[in-house]
Write a sequence for this structure.
């Protein structure tokens, strides 16, 4: 039978994530206002707390599936606005796992590795990057020169996985990745970027000036293999977006109720106030999007790698976060603008999800190519 | 459904009052499907402050079945107005015999079914326009290769997926005997907006040809609008 219900174990794990999100929420405001200050690797309250994601893996047999739960746990965390502990994993770790040799993996598997692709002239079009890696025959090193921008986990990571344009010892050219450890001469991390939202997130630009790294640091993936890291992360970003949207909806419903407006689902359009109608439409957007996320994660759970469904989840989640956070402020009016309340931060935080990790337009390109059976030559 | 532009399921005008032998029913129902073919009507009416359902024989005195009224879409399903003027009913005509009829359950099921129909119409539009846009050449290239068209098709795919999952979820709750009111409302409300958008863009993608009755997209455009406002019609 088709069943969307969460198991008892699911609910226990999500309740734990929710409690932790509530604790995280108490810090969200501070780090939103202190963007130059990195949140700690772990907040004091994290001590002795089980990690809901680890718990989901331990109890996998009793749950709907650890991959499905992972997305729902992330959603909970993002509804609080601050995680109790910093993630030890970066997208660079996925690249390492995917293409590194066993020796390379052994060396760096416990490092937190950020991914460094985006440049001032190349965001949605990463093939257009200009960072170069030139092989120095005399020293057997690669020399990296270039600038990377909008890099997540820039200061907190142990290394960066850098996508660069290489000229090999044999004169061959192409795009490939290099692992650059923190502290390598010629590699510098800039100050925290001044963002609209997600100000607690560690985001900086990186500079490579004649940065020399050994051949061993050449992680021999190509452009295609590097970009595959985003397949898995897409539904997760959708889930994160919806966590922020959920926070906005919950706050709005609470304030409406305090003002005597309860949302009735039984009535039709003509018996609803305008405000209740708007709220229901925003809720419907949330529900639609979260189900596309669950669909993608369910497929992943069955070991059916979801390409189109992953892009659908990311596109739907990103759009939903925009619409819902915008709409909730519209419903509640000017009091919602005040920094006294969390909704204006949800509005600012919510805007990123349709932009990063593959903008909504790129997701639609991927979906369009899949449904139309077109290649990137047919439609760009 | 009642023939008033302000009609809403929560404000029913058709009413039944208790009599010595049973009930007396009066009111006017609109958009009644199969009015010309059925033997009985299930009539939802306000009774003693709540909504209840009554079974009424079409031949009962006071029942006036009007001619079918042609409408914008779903034209194959003829619907007529049916009037009830002081129709005398036995007490056992009231469903559930005073235990009250789960009208909200009927409405929830209706909304879920309509969401499913709208998802189906959406899918029909999407599956029809895709090959057309790949074939049709405009300014030297297939329509489907133009970003605005390709992105609209991508959005059609996103929204038909979403509508399907929302409908499945509401239906699964109904199947298990749970309270589906919220889920049915969300599935319905979402489908109303998306199905109308999809049918609308479907016509646009075919240009002038989309406007002709030779092609099905204009029918789906009419059907999408029709089904998406029928939330009171089915059984109520």
């Amino acid at each position: 039978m088709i069943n969307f219900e969460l198991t008892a174990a699911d609910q226990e794990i999500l309740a734990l994530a929710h409690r932790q999100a509530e604790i995280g929420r108490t810090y969200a405001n501070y780090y939103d206002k202190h963007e130059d200050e990195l949140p700690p690797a772990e907040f004091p309250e994290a001590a002795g707390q089980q990690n809901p994601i680890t718990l989901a893996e331990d109890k996998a047999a009793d749950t709907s599936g650890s991959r499905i739960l992972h997305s729902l746990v992330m959603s909970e965390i993002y509804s609080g606005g601050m995680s109790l502990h910093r993630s030890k994993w970066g997208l660079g770790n996925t690249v390492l796992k995917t293409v590194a040799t066993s020796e390379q993996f052994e060396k760096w598997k416990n490092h937190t590795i950020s991914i460094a692709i985006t440049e001032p002239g190349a965001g949605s079009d990463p093939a257009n990057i200009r960072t170069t890696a030139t092989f120095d025959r005399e020293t057997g090193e690669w020399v990296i020169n270039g600038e990377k921008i909008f890099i997540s986990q820039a200061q907190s990571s142990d290394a960066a996985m850098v996508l660069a344009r290489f000229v090999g010892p044999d004169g061959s050219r192409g795009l490939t990745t290099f692992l650059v450890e923190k502290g390598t001469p010629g590699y510098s991390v800039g100050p925290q970027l001044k963002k609209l939202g997600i100000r607690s997130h560690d985001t900086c630009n990186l500079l490579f000036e004649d940065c020399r790294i050994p051949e061993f640091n050449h992680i021999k993936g190509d452009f295609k293999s590097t970009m595959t890291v985003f397949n898995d992360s897409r539904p997760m970003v959708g889930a994160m977006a919806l966590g922020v949207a959920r926070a906005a909806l919950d706050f709005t419903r609470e304030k409406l109720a305090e003002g005597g407006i309860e949302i009735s689902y039984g009535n039709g359009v003509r018996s609803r106030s305008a405000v209740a109608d708007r709220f229901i439409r925003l809720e419907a957007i949330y529900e639609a999007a979260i189900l596309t996320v669950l669909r993608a994660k369910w497929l992943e759970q069955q070991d059916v790698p979801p390409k189109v469904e992953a892009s659908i989840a990311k596109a739907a989640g990103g759009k939903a976060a925009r619409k819902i956070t915008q709409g909730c402020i519209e419903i509640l009016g000017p009091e919602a603008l005040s920094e006294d309340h969390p909704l204006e931060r949800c509005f600012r935080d919510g805007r990123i999800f349709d932009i990063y990790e593959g903008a909504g337009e790129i997701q639609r390109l991927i979906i369009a190519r899949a449904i139309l059976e077109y290649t990137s030559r047919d439609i760009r | 459904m009642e023939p008033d532009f302000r009609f809403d399921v929560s404000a029913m005008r058709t009413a039944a009052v208790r009599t010595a032998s049973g009930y007396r029913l009066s009111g006017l129902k609109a958009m009644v499907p199969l009015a010309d073919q059925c033997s009985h009507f299930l009539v939802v009416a306000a009774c003693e402050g709540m909504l209840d359902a009554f079974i009424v024989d079409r031949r009962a005195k006071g029942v006036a079945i009007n001619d079918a009224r042609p409408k914008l879409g779903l034209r194959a399903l003829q619907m007529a107005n049916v009037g009830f003027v002081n129709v005398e009913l036995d007490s056992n005509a009231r469903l559930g015999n005073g235990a009250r009829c789960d009208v909200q359950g009927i409405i929830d099921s209706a909304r879920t079914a309509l969401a499913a129909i709208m998802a189906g119409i959406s899918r029909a539009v999407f599956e029809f326009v895709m090959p057309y846009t790949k074939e049709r050449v405009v300014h030297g290239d297939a329509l489907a290769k133009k970003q605005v068209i390709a992105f609209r098709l991508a959005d059609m795919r996103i929204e038909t997926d979403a509508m399907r999952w929302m409908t499945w979820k509401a239906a699964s709750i109904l199947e298990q005997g749970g309270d589906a009111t919220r889920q049915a409302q969300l599935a319905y409300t979402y489908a109303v907006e998306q199905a109308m958008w999809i049918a609308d863009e479907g016509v646009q993608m075919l240009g002038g040809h989309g406007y002709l009755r030779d092609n099905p997209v204009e029918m789906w455009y009419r059907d999408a609008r029709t089904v998406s406002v029928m939330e009171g019609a089915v059984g109520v």
Summary: Chain B touches chain A through 46 residues (CB under 8 Å).
